[in-house]
Specification:
The structure is a single chain. The chain has a domain of 214 residues. The chain is an alpha/beta fold. The radius of gyration is 22 Å and the shape is globular. The strands form three sheets. Strands 3, 4, 5, 7, 8, 10, 11, 13, 14, 15, 16 and 17 form a twelve-stranded mixed sheet that branches. Strands 6-9-12 form a three-stranded parallel sheet, with no helix packed on it. A two-stranded antiparallel ribbon has the order 1-2. Helix 2 links the parallel strand 3 and strand 4. Helix 1 runs antiparallel to helix 4. The chain is 14% helix and 23% strand.
Length: 373
C-alpha cells in the first residue's frame, strides 16, 4: 500500500487497515462538480486547503555526490539494432523480438497512430531494448525523442530493461515526475520482477518543475528500490551562461526557467490519478547523468498555497474552460512562465462556501473526501 501526503508525494502507507462499519459521515464542506471537473478531486481539495495558513518551509537542498562511471553506446553495425527515422519505424523495432535496440538517425516523434500496425497493445517486451542516438559527449547533438505522451504502449517483462541513451526526451510524462516517477509509454508490469526504465547520459525536458529550493527535498524524500541502494543525488544549482532564446537551437543551448541534473536517482515507478491515489507500476525508473530542462516552473506562492501536485493540477487542469463564478483573472505570481489559466478566486466562509453544496446527479454518490497521508 502507498499513500500521498499533502504535497502529492507518495510514501509507504502505515501498516494497518482502516475498516469502517455503519459509520455515518458528515461533510463540513463539499466540492462542487465544477471544481472537480476543473482540478480533479485532489486538486480541488488542495485548493480548499490553500485557504488555511501556509505549511512550514521545507528543508534545504541535499548535497550531491560523485556520479557513476560511463556506459557503452548501442552498436551502429549490429543487425539486431534497427536504424530508425520515424515513429512508426521505432514502434516496429520495439514490436520485433529479434531487435535489441534502435538507433535514432534524427529527431523522432511518437503518436498513437504509429501503433496501429503493432497488433495487440501494450507490446510485450521480453528482452532488453535500447533506444539511443549516436554516442557523443556533445549534448547539443543528441536527437530529440518526443514520446507524445502516448500511454501504456509497451509492457516490460520480468527483469527487462528499456534503456534510453544519448537522446533528449520530451513529452514522456504528463504528470509531475517528482510525484509520479515513470514513463507514460510504459504500461505497468504485471509483477515485481525487476523491470526497469534506465535513462542514462540523456537529457529530459520536464513540463514543469517545482521551485528550486524544494527540488532536492522532493526527490531525496523518495526511497530507492532495494536493488539500487545508496543516496539520491541531484544537482539543482546549475547556471545557464551564454544560453540563447533562439528556439531553433538545440534544447541544451536554450534558456529555460530552470534546470538541474539527476546524477544518480532510482525510484520505484508509480502512477497518480486525479484522486491522488498511487498505483505501483512494478518497474523502476533509474536516471544516471541526466540533465533536466524545465519548460515551466512553479512559484513558491503556488506551491505554498496548493502543494506541488495541486499547483500542477492548477496549471494543467483537466478541463480548459473555467467558470467565471469560480475563477478570476490570472495572477502572474503563480508561475514564472505565462499561464493561460486563471487563478481560483477566494471562496466565502469556511463552513458553507458558495457553489460547494450542489447535490450530486441522480443515481450517483457524492464525491468522498480524500484522506491526506
Amino acid at each position: 500500500m502507498r499513500a500521498t501526503d499533502a504535497s502529492g508525494r507518495v510514501t509507504n502507507a502505515p501498516l494497518y487497515e482502516l475498516h469502517m462499519v455503519r459509520v455515518p459521515y458528515l461533510c463540513e464542506q463539499q466540492m462542487s462538480m465544477e471544481c472537480i471537473a476543473r482540478l480533479g478531486p485532489l486538486g480541488c481539495s488542495l485548493y480548499l486547503r490553500s485557504l488555511s495558513p501556509s505549511p512550514a518551509p521545507v528543508p534545504g537542498p541535499v548535497p550531491a555526490g560523485p556520479a557513476p562511471g560511463p556506459a557503452p553506446a548501442v552498436s551502429t553495425d549490429d543487425p539486431a539494432v534497427a536504424r530508425v527515422a520515424t515513429g512508426a519505424q521505432l514502434v516496429a523495432a520495439l514490436a520485433d523480438p529479434s531487435k535489441t535496440g534502435a538507433l535514432l538517425l534524427n529527431d523522432v516523434a511518437l503518436s498513437d497512430s504509429d501503433f496501429t500496425a503493432a497488433g495487440a497493445l501494450p507490446i510485450p517486451r521480453a528482452t532488453n531494448f535500447t533506444i539511443a542516438g549516436r554516442q557523443t559527449t556533445d549534448q547539443a547533438l543528441f536527437p530529440v525523442l518526443n514520446l507524445g505522451f502516448v500511454k501504456s504502449k509497451v509492457r516490460l517483462g520480468g527483469g527487462v530493461v528499456l534503456k534510453l541513451q544519448y537522446v533528449v526526451l520530451r513529452d514522456f510524462r504528463a504528470t509531475p515526475l517528482g510525484q509520479s516517477p515513470g514513463f507514460d509509454l510504459v504500461a505497468s508490469s504485471t509483477t515485481e520482477a525487476g523491470a526497469m526504465v534506465l535513462v542514462q547520459d540523456s537529457v529530459m525536458m520536464l513540463r514543469i518543475c517545482v521551485p528550486r529550493n524544494i527540488q532536492g527535498e522532493i526527490m531525496s524524500s523518495i526511497p530507492r528500490p532495494p536493488g539500487l541502494p545508496g543516496s539520491q543525488i541531484s544537482l539543482y544549482n546549475k547556471t545557464q551562461a551564454n544560453c540563447t532564446n533562439n528556439t531553433a537551437s538545440a534544447p541544451v543551448l536554450r534558456c529555460w526557467p530552470d534546470l538541474g541534473e539527476y546524477v544518480d536517482v532510482a525510484v520505484a515507478g508509480f502512477d497518480i490519478d486525479a484522486f491522488g491515489r498511487a498505483t505501483a507500476t512494478h518497474y523502476t525508473l533509474y536516471m544516471v547523468r541526466v540533465p533536466y530542462l524545465c519548460e515551466r516552473q512553479m512559484t513558491d506562492e503556488c506551491v505554498a498555497a496548493l502543494g506541488p501536485l495541486g499547483c500542477f493540477l492548477y496549471l494543467f487542469p483537466r478541463t480548459p474552460s473555467p467558470s467565471p463564478s469560480l475563477f478570476r483573472s490570472p495572477s502572474p505570481a503563480m508561475a514564472r512562465s505565462p499561464s493561460p489559466l486563471p487563478l481560483p478566486s477566494p471562496l466565502p466562509s469556511p463552513s458553507r462556501r458558495a457553489g460547494l453544496h450542489h447535490p450530486p446527479p441522480r443515481g450517483r454518490r457524492r464525491p468522498q473526501p480524500q484522506a491526506q497521508g
